[in-house]
C-alpha cells in the first residue's frame, strides 16, 4: 500500500465517469495503492467504447465491403449477389461492445477499484453525492464525465432528429439520410451510410467540411465524396424538419430545395458534460462552453478536484483522455510527476478515403511566417489501377525551408490512419526532410511516397518581419 491511503476520507480518489480518461486514472491510481471508487451512470467504457470510436470503426468496416466486392471484379473475381443485413450487423457490433464493456469492468475490479453504477455529483471539494442519496468523501475527485452531442434547441422539428448516440441503434438502415455538420463525426457517418448504399446528403453551414484541416485535404475529401455520390450541401442551415407520409422533409435557409429523408442526423459538435454536476457550487471554474478549466496537471481551481478528457475540451480524442488520466494518477498517487503533451498529436478521420494528419496545415505553417516548402503528390493507388475505381490518394509534406524540419504530414487515402501513427513518431522526434529522404522506401506501397517526394510543388518565402 502506498502512502496514498488517507483514513480521513472514505476513498482516496473518487472518479466521476467510467470512460477513457476516468477508467485509466482509476486503474493506475489503484495500482499505486489508492482506494478508488468510479461512478458510471450509463455503461462502463464511456463514449469511445459504447458510442464513439469503436462502434464507429466497426461501421466503417461494414461499409467498405461493397466497394471491395466491386473492386474484386477487376482482379478476375466473380462475386455473386451481395446484400447487407443491418439488424445482423448491429447485433454483432453490440455483442462486441458488450464484450469490451465487460473487460473494462473486470479490469477495474481486478485492480481493486469499486464501481458504482449510478450518477454522481460533486457536493464539495472532498465530497460526492450518489444518485441513491449516499455521500462519499474523497481526498481527491476526478471529473471525467466527457461530452455529449450539441443540440439546436430552436430548430423546429428537432424531435425528429437523431444524434451520434442513437445512430448506433437504429432498428433499420435509413435508405435516405441527411447529416448536419462538417466535423469528423458528420463526415465519417456520411462515408459509412454511403458505403452501405444509403442516399446521403451532408449539410454544413461553412463552405468546406473539416474546418482546421489542411485545405488540400478538405478539397480532396470533398471531391472523393462527390465521386461516391454523396450530395454535399455547403453554406446551408436547416430551418425545420417536418414529418410526413414519405419521411422527414428538411428545409433550408439559403434557398436549397427541401430534401426528404428517413433519418436526420445532427452532428453539429459536442459540449462538455458539466450541467448539473455541482461544480460551480463547489468552486470549480468553468469556461464559456461549460468546460472545466484546468492547468497542465489537469488540476481545477479547487486543489482537490482534477478533470481530464473531453470535459476539459482540450483535445477531444480518446488517447488524449487516457494520457491525461494516466499522468494525473502517476503524479498524484504514484510519486511520478508528468504532464500529457498536447503538441503534435497525430489524428485520423475514418472517412472513405481515410485521412491521417500530424502537425501544421499549410495555412498554420504560413501563419508562423517561416519559409515553407510544400511537397504534394496525388496519384491513383496501385490497387485501383486494376480495379478501375476512380479514386485518388493525396500525400502532403510541409517543410520549414530554413531548418528542413517537417512541420506537417497529411495523407488522404487507404490506411492513412495507420501511416500517420508512424509518421507521427518521426515528426514528434523533430525529423527533417533529409531524415525522411534518407529512409529507404518500402516498395510497392503508397506510404513510400512520403520518402520519395524530391521536388517541392511550391515554395513560400519567409514572411518579412513586421516593422
Ligand atoms: C461518434 C464518435 C466517434 C468518435 N471517434 C473517435 C475516434 O475515432 N478516435 C478518437 O480518438 N476519439 C473519438 N471520439 C472521441 C472520444 O470518444 C472521446 O474523446 C473520449 O471518449 C473521451 O473520453 P472521456 O473519458 O473524456 O469521456 P467519455 O468517454 O465520454 O466518458 C465519460 C463517461 O462519464 C459518464 N458520466 C457523465 N456524467 C456522469 C455522472 N454525473 N455520473 C456518472 N457518470 C457520468 C458518461 O456516461 C460516460 O460514460 C469519438 C466520439 C464520438 C462521439
Give a description of the structure:
With 467 residues, this protein is of the alpha/beta class. It contains 12 helices and 22 strands. A hairpin with a 2-residue loop joins strand 11 (238-244) and strand 12 (247-252). The model has no long low-confidence stretch (mean pLDDT 97). Helix 1 (20-31) runs parallel beside helix 8 (318-333) and helix 3 (53-72) packs across helix 4. The protein is globular, with a radius of gyration of 24 Å. Strands 1, 2, 3, 4, 5, 6 and 16 form a 7-stranded mixed β-sheet that branches. The protein has a 6-stranded antiparallel β-sheet with strand order 17-18-21-20-19-22, sandwiched between helices. The protein binds flavin-adenine dinucleotide.
Bound molecules: flavin-adenine dinucleotide
> Can you tell me the residue ranges where pLDDT is under 50 for at least 5 consecutive residues?
none
Terminal CA distance reads: 61 Å
Percent strand equals: 15-25%
Shape: globular
How many β-strand stretches?
22
Largest sheet: 7 strands, mixed
- Classification by helices and strands: alpha/beta
* Multimerization state: single chain
The number of helices is 12
Amino acid at each position: 500500500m502506498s502512502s496514498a491511503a488517507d483514513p480521513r476520507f472514505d476513498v482516496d480518489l473518487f472518479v466521476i465517469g467510467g470512460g477513457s480518461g476516468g477508467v485509466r486514472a482509476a486503474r493506475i491510481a489503484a495500482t499505486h495503492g489508492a482506494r478508488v471508487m468510479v461512478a458510471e451512470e450509463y455503461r462502463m467504457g464511456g463514449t469511445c467504447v459504447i458510442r464513439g470510436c469503436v462502434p464507429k470503426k466497426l461501421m466503417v468496416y461494414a461499409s467498405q465491403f461493397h466497394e471491395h466486392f466491386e473492386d474484386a471484379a477487376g482482379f478476375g473475381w466473380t462475386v455473386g449477389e451481395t446484400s447487407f443485413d443491418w439488424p445482423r450487423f448491429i447485433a454483432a457490433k453490440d455483442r462486441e461492445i458488450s464484450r469490451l464493456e465487460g473487460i473494462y469492468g473486470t479490469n477495474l475490479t481486478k485492480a481493486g477499484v469499486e464501481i458504482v453504477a449510478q450518477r454522481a455529483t460533486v457536493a464539495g471539494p472532498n465530497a460526492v453525492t450518489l444518485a441513491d442519496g449516499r455521500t462519499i468523501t474523497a481526498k481527491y475527485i476526478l471529473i471525467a464525465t466527457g461530452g455529449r452531442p450539441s443540440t439546436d434547441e430552436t430548430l423546429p422539428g428537432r424531435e425528429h432528429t437523431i444524434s451520434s448516440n442513437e445512430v448506433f441503434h437504429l432498428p433499420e438502415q435509413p435508405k435516405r439520410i441527411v447529416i448536419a455538420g462538417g466535423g469528423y463525426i458528420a463526415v465519417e457517418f456520411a462515408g459509412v451510410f454511403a458505403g452501405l448504399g444509403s442516399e446521403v446528403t451532408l449539410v454544413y453551414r461553412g463552405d468546406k467540411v473539416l474546418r482546421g484541416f489542411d485545405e488540400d485535404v478538405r478539397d480532396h475529401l470533398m471531391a472523393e465524396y462527390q465521386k461516391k455520390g454523396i450530395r454535399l450541401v455547403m453554406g446551408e442551415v436547416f430551418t425545420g424538419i417536418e414529418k410526413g407520409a414519405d419521411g422527414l422533409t428538411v428545409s433550408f435557409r439559403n434557398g436549397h430545395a427541401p430534401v426528404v429523408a428517413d433519418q436526420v442526423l445532427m452532428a453539429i459538435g459536442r459540449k462538455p458534460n458539466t450541467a448539473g454536476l455541482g461544480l460551480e457550487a463547489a468552486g470549480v471554474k468553468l469556461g464559456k462552453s461549460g468546460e472545466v478549466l484546468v492547468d497542465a496537471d489537469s488540476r481545477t481551481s479547487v486543489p482537490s478536484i482534477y478533470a481530464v478528457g473531453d470535459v476539459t475540451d482540450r483535445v477531444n480524442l480518446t488517447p488524449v483522455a487516457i494520457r491525461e488520466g494516466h499522468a494525473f494518477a502517476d503524479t498524484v498517487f504514484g510519486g511520478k510527476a508528468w504532464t500529457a503533451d498536447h503538441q503534435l498529436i497525430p489524428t485520423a478521420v475514418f472517412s472513405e478515403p481515410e485521412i491521417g494528419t500530424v502537425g501544421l496545415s499549410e495555412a498554420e505553417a504560413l501563419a508562423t511566417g517561416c519559409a515553407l516548402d510544400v511537397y504534394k503528390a496525388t496519384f491513383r493507388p496501385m490497387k485501383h489501377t486494376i480495379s478501375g475505381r476512380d479514386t485518388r490518394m493525396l500525400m502532403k509534406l510541409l517543410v520549414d525551408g530554413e531548418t528542413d524540419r517537417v512541420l506537417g504530414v497529411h495523407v488522404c487515402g487507404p490506411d492513412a490512419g495507420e501511416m500517420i501513427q508512424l509518421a507521427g513518431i518521426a515528426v514528434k522526434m523533430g525529423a527533417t526532410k533529409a531524415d525522411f529522404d534518407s529512409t529507404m522506401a518500402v516498395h510497392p506501397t503508397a506510404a513510400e511516397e512520403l520518402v520519395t517526394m524530391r521536388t517541392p510543388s511550391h515554395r513560400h518565402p519567409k514572411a518579412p518581419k513586421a516593422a
